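Sample A.
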Amino acid sequence: MTGRVLIVDDVVTAGTAIRESIDIIKSAGARPAGVLLALDRQERGSETGLSAVQEVREQFGIPVIAVIGLQELMQYMQGLGRSVELAGMQAYRERYGVEN
């Protein structure tokens, strides 16, 4: 395989699956072109203070683009008045997240 490959994923947690995908792409002789995510959960990466998405961007020098981020999803849920779901998202962000 040659050329450039776009990685498409639903979400990123620690970025492990993306790193593995990049290794597979490179070992096949191609180059990763970027990553397209459905949702950026804006989770902390590995001890850098950056989010997992920011770490992938910096480590591999490729764009990582999300359709929507957790903060935007939370704003949408707030607009719908979905306070129970929003409270769960806020607790999740406080435990695992970074502010992007």
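Sample B.
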Amino acid sequence: MAFVLPPYRAPDLEIEPFTSSPTVVFKPVTSPGVAPADYHATSVYPEYFHLRAAEWRLLEESRMDCVVVRTADGRLEVTEFRNLAAGDQVACGRRENGEDGIYVHTEAFEFPPHVKEKFAFRSHLTRETSFSIDYDELYDLLGYERENGFILWVLGPAVVFDHDSRKAFTRLIETGFVHGLMAGNALATHDLEGALFGTALGQELYAKRTVALGHYRHLDALNKIRGIGSIETAVGQGAINDGVMRAVVGEKIPYVLAGSIRDDGPMPEVIADVYRAQDRMRGLTRKATTIVCLATQLHAIATGNMTPSYTVAGGVVRPVYFYTVDMSEFAVSKLADRGSLTARSILTNVQDFVVTVERGLGKRRA
């Protein structure tokens, strides 16, 4: 079945209570990083702001738990608190049905009935839940998005701990199903350990046999890449001949490696400043139309917190699809409970998931 985007159901803002709504009040920031009293905090939903008579403007590139700044040229920018500057004009008002000139549109997309049930707020999943239809719908979605969207993957290191999973994800990159990648130091380190030594955390990728002095392998990989200068230089010099990082560099896929307090090394491309890393991640989530998070609770939750349920692409308002895949019921429930219109969860081993998805997409291309 060919994938079709659900139509956007725009609100009728030419009827009451909207015709009687006041315009939005904007108040200046007096202290950098501090919003004025009664600031409006954004949600995951499409939001409209009444700026002047008969003009309601939809926020673009939104993010929940931020504020809205009107720029000098009249644009509306969704801004993190830490980025507020003195004099910024911030939208104020906490009533969301037009009373303060702000409307939060919670019934935005016309999803099919069975999909509405899956997207229900706080839907409960267990390891016994069936996911066959979820895979088939994901294949349809990724086939559409490869040509029409921006598919962003958020990876934990488990993806590259397994021989078949690492190869399968590399093929997903090479066949155009990965448009952006976000991860931490561990994903890159163990992928490059695999390329250099055929191991992950000192165990052979396929046979899982522990090699002599295997606990040195990831450190040796870090040390070698740091000695060369960067992952991209190592790939360019031919020191790295397979794996996920070689593929993203070779295909010129944008990626962000965000640092952690527990990192070894880290790899040269890892961004140690947490807010600079967040800004870089935000740059990719702004482009994303589908996001798939694999076995990385903290990165998945962080990505979910900066991803709205919609985006505006070519003047068309469309949903942002958000998948989280993990063996932990807590991890997938946390993301499902964000209240997104499009948060989907699959409880399974991510290595099996990656292999299954790559094979399923390959069969559909055949």
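B remarks: The longest helix spans residues 132-148. The longest strand covers residues 47-52.
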